[in-house]
Amino acid sequence: MPRVFITGIGLITSIGNDAASVTASLRELRHGFQHYPPFQSPEIPVKVAAPVRDFVTEGNDPEDWSFPSRYKIRRDILRGMAPHGVYAWCAMQQAVADAALEEADIANAHTGLFAASAGSPRLMGYMLNRMHQHGVMRCSPLGIVASISGTLNFNLVAHFKIKGASCGFSSACASSSHALGYAFDELVLGRQKRMFVVGAEDGNVDSILPFAGMRALSLQTELTQASRPFDAARDGFVGTGGATVLVLETEDEVARRGVRPYCEVAGWGQASDGHNVAISHPDGEGLRAAMENALRSTCTPAEAVDYINAHATSTPIGDISEARALKAIFKTPSARPAISSTKALTGHGLSLAGAMESAFCALALRDGFMPGSAHITRLDPECEGLNIIRSTLPAQANVVLNNSSGFGGANVCLVFKRAA
User: Are the beta carbons of 245 and 198 closer than 8 angstroms?
Assistant: First the structure.
């Protein structure tokens, strides 16, 4: 079976807008939280978010948006984008440069793109309100393209002239992990030679605040207490947005182009809870099965895993579900891998999370460290016995897992290995 490698990464996140700054934040456990100005009204109980810096995308007119001057987006292209489309465009340019790709490498039938986002709730709401208040013909001709959940693949495939496989994925917080898994399948089955995997979210009031109604967001006002996966006092997640782009290539393409990969994508597994539309199975049955499938498909014994980037979002139910799944797979306490949740730094990126945290795994494998799990004051007793690391370890991992779980009990486990 052909081997698959990550050769390029682009990052627009709450903890940095390029690989170097993100790596520094992961090493130093530097979070991206702030008292988010739009949340400071008395009627809004949530106060903390993790917005992207250096971008202004607050208005509904793209003409009013701004972004770092190193990126160029034509006005006609911008009109068909959501805020997270801008983040993805910039991350895409980073990833293309990082992988040393030329236009001929991208614009061909052997290169595809899989993407994941929830669309833009704010732009959709604005467009529908305008339609009802002012009439159908007063809506932007590109309003649908900019706001629905396929907006990422619409824009990126068209404007980067990608001619291979393209698709959008929608499984909530497992979406971009599904995109990466199926991109891997395209490559090992010989259908494509190169795949872009994209995850992005707006990360604004309309994409974050509805989760308060689910009682899923933290109500803490102290920044270091708002996102604390595995802590006994955690009370919900912190919302974030941004974008991540990963370039996946076959071993033959890596050799042909002479590029140095970050790591190998060894394979993946998935499974469903079959339990609840919004809440993980209390014993983590679907995630356990996803990890078992991933390890079996990659011929990886559990004892070979060095580090796990956990899904753990800092919700009371979700973190325990994952902890129980991890204990069921890694049975020997003294041999359990290092575990952390980088959502303690970034917040929860929803459908962005899987791709973003896969990029973190790739950076850790290439640069020889394991990011710690920040902000834990008192470990939840249910997590006792797991090797949850509180600080970043300057240690080289060889095998890393990345877990993701979404609504309806969708679970994905991705396996990454150090590039030999």
Answer: yes
